[in-house]
Amino acid sequence: ICILTWGSSSGAAFEAAGRLSAMGKPTRVVAIRLLSPLPEQPMRDAIDGAARTLVVEQNHAGQLFHYLHSLNLLHGEVRKLAKPGPLPIRPGEIVNAILEWI
């Protein structure tokens, strides 16, 4: 499982990955630091081999998800967790989204 995120959602993603790994579900996090220009080859290397990738972002429309799709970087089973609003995404929300998926 790969959690792909950026910005303010990164901390929650790392905590969620720790919880999932402790449950016996190996999970890695790719926290993007640079969107433009996006380092495409390092991104490909980081997410390569993940059967499932969850793109986590703090917005309504899932812009990062669509941006990465437009660059043909996402392969395998891919879903997004996009949450707008003033409250940050919590680690439990990420864990629940993945557990419901797998």
Q: Any overview of this molecule?
A:
This protein has a four-stranded parallel beta sheet, with helices on both faces. The relative contact order is 0.25. Helix 1 packs across helix 4. Helix content is 39%, strand content 22%. The protein has four helices and four strands, in the order E-H-E-H-E-H-E-H. Helix 3 links the parallel strand 3 and strand 4. It has one domain: Rossmann fold, CATH 3.40.50.920. The radius of gyration is 13 Å and the shape is globular.
Spatial strand order of the main sheet? 2-1-3-4
Alpha-carbon distance between the termini?
9 Å
Topology, number of strands:
4
CATH class placement: Alpha Beta
Largest sheet: 4 strands, parallel
Mean pLDDT comes to: 95
Shape: globular
CATH topology: Rossmann fold
Low-confidence stretches: none
CATH architecture descriptor text: 3-Layer(aba) Sandwich
Structural class from helices and strands? Answer: alpha/beta
Whole-number tally of structural domains = 1
Order of helices and strands: EHEHEHEH
What level of helicity do the residues show?
25-40%
Beta-strand residue fraction: 15-25%
Q: Helical region count?
A: 4
Structural Rg: 13 Å
